[in-house]
Amino acid sequence: MPRRQGLISRFGAALLLATAVGGCGGEAASPTTVRVLVRDINIREEGVDCAGTGAYTFFHNRAPFRVLDGAGETLTDGRLPPGKAVRTFEEDLEVERIPTYCEFAVPVSVPARSGYQLVVDDQPAIPLTADSGALVAVVPS
Amino acid sequence: MRLLALLLVAVLGLAACGGADPEAPAGGAATLPGPVPADLALRPVPPGTPSAPVFTGTLTDGTALAAADLWAERPVVLLFFASWCTTCADRQDALSDLARDYRDRVVFVGVVTGDEPAELEAYLRAHEAEFPVVVDADGTISRSYAVREPGAVAVVAKGGALLRGWPGGLDASTLDNRIRELLLDEVSR
């Protein structure tokens, strides 16, 4: 009888462990931010919501995106928020509308990988680089 | 029998309201303007004003639209927007009111690029936009007006002169003032 109780205990512990691991959905994911600077040099007011222009019109609010690892496996997906217009240089031109880039920042949770890529609206993948706790890209690079 | 009569009266009453057809696609043929008011008085166009790029397009319901047919009779305000454009959404309610105020005198025409039909329809209904909307699927019309991202506005005089454009757009109050300055004679104000 004690042997049977021991078997049941070990089986129960194994079941709990398996449930715990399975319940986590696999690998642990860490929160980070994907930052993409679209260097489209468009005339805007600094800080306004923006979308990419020229060859980057697919970068806009609600555009679908995926974060892939280096091998092309999708790690997470979602929709972009609006971009924010950031000045291209520090000189004060004394006008409201100035040359700007459009920067997107998206909070994501991804498992640790040696490489990451970003796909927006099924366009070609853009390599992301780990930098100061974020995954960043500049286009055109 | 009495219930039937009441229903009939209600249906006839609703039909007589003359409001926008809830079944018709927003931005379609039902939003095209009526006859130009006889008392519309316009400012003369400054000499040397360039012509607006002529375009044809398709409204949200598939109706063909030739912009030159509209500005042959009255001024046209082109609103370049998208349902995902947050700045556009912030301004749209007031712009929709302005378009209603000027209806038949100055026609507002939406030009939409890079949008999903269902999201565009929801946007137009949410913001009570009751003006024709051209679907500029490949961005040709926007590019011809040098519009790089949505939120832009252009004003075209009767006859087709391109009076002014605002790449970053503008709010309804400012646009109203500009319409009065650029287009309307004192009589029409």
UniProtKB/TrEMBL annotation, chain A:
This is Lipoprotein. It comes from Phytohabitans maris.
From TrEMBL, chain B:
Pfam families: AhpC-TSA. SUPFAM superfamilies: Thioredoxin-like. Residues 1-20 form the signal peptide. The keyword Signal applies. InterPro entries: AhpC/TSA, Thioredoxin-like_sf, Thioredoxin_CS, Thioredoxin_domain, Thioredoxin_ResA/DsbE_sf. Residues 46-184 form the Thioredoxin domain. Coiled coil: none annotated. It comes from the Bacteria. Keywords: Signal. This is Redoxin domain-containing protein. It comes from Phytohabitans maris.
